[in-house]
Amino acid sequence: MSDRFVGSALLIVGATGGIGSALARRLAHQGARLALAARTPEALENLARELGGIAIPTDATHPTEVDAAVARTVEEYGRLDGVAHCVGSLLLKPAHTTTNEEWDQTLLANLSSAFYVLRAAARVMQRTGGSVVLVSSAAGSTGLANHEAIAAAKGGIAAMAVSAAATYASRNIRVNCVAPGLVRTPLTARLTQSEVSLKASQAMHPLGRIGEPDDVAAAIAFLLDPANRWITGQVLGVDGGLATLKVSAGRSAPANG
């Protein structure tokens, strides 16, 4: 076990999701004291028992519950060193078929919940500093068909992270963001369990595969790590090159020599 996070008190909101649970296990193995928040009580209790953390049932779309989760973390550990927001939803529909309710719910589950977590963490970290990591998406910066609502929400998260980093830099609060491509999680099962859609998704990512939860968890842990305390205001693409690279189909790497 690494001792990278020994003594640190970290809150993961959305801890029972694919990325959240991978992050929780990674941080626990590196010595962190964990507060785990999610709205799935049984899965949350099981994860907390496995990792020796505390379980805080929380619906991140309710700001009072987010505030309570942060307060409970401080009550238990006496401090809050880092927070990861791993909450989200996925809506793949063109704008003309997206209902008002779907639009509102997509913004609430993604952008609003991230804002509630950022705000609650910033209030507590004013005196001690700390690290906040939010999860955006490659869709927020890349034109992907049928992603209008989710792209707006995830793009907003990335923009919010950069603005907050400027706001709170003088208080030694670092705010960063990861922007994954398609990751194999329960949330994306409809896409990843179909052989046709999986092959199409793999082809969209220049590295030739979709992501695994630990790919993203590793990046979040890096940004939470106090050893990286000079990094703030960054949106880190963890997407197999999806957002920034264009690789021609069928092209092979140049031969050595």
Fill in the keyword field for this structure:
257 residues; alpha/beta; Rossmann fold; seven-stranded parallel β-sheet; 8 helices; 7 strands; 43% helix; globular
Can you put this structure into words, describing what you see?
The protein has 257 residues and is an alpha/beta fold. It has a single domain, classed as Rossmann fold. The protein has a seven-stranded parallel beta sheet, with helices on both faces. Helix 1 links the parallel strand 1 and strand 2. Helix 1 crosses helix 8, helix 3 runs parallel beside helix 4 and helix 4 packs parallel to helix 5. The protein is globular. The N and C termini lie far apart (42 Å).
Chain-wise SSE layout:
Layout lengths: L8 E5 L4 H12 L3 E6 L2 H11 L2 E4 L5 H15 L4 E4 L14 H26 L4 E6 L12 H21 L4 E8 L8 H4 L2 H10 L8 H12 L10 E4 L19
Parallel strand pairs: 1-2, 1-4, 2-3, 4-5, 5-6, 6-7
> Quick one: CATH class?
Alpha Beta
Following the backbone from N to C, one meets helices and strands in this order, namely: EHEHEHEHEHEHHHE
Rg for CA atoms: 18 Å
Count of the separate structural domains: 1
User: Oligomer, anyone?
Assistant: single chain
**CATH architecture classification:** 3-Layer(aba) Sandwich
**Major sheet summary line:** 7 strands, parallel
Could you report the average pLDDT, rounded to the nearest whole number?
92
Instruction: Tell me the CATH superfamily.
Output: NAD(P)-binding Rossmann-like Domain
The residue ranges in which pLDDT falls below 50 over 5 or more consecutive positions are none
End-to-end separation in angstroms reads 42 Å
What characteristic shape results from the CA principal axes? Answer: globular
In percent, how helical is the residue content?
Answer: 40-55%
Number of DSSP helical runs: 8
Major β-sheet strand ordering? 3-2-1-4-5-6-7
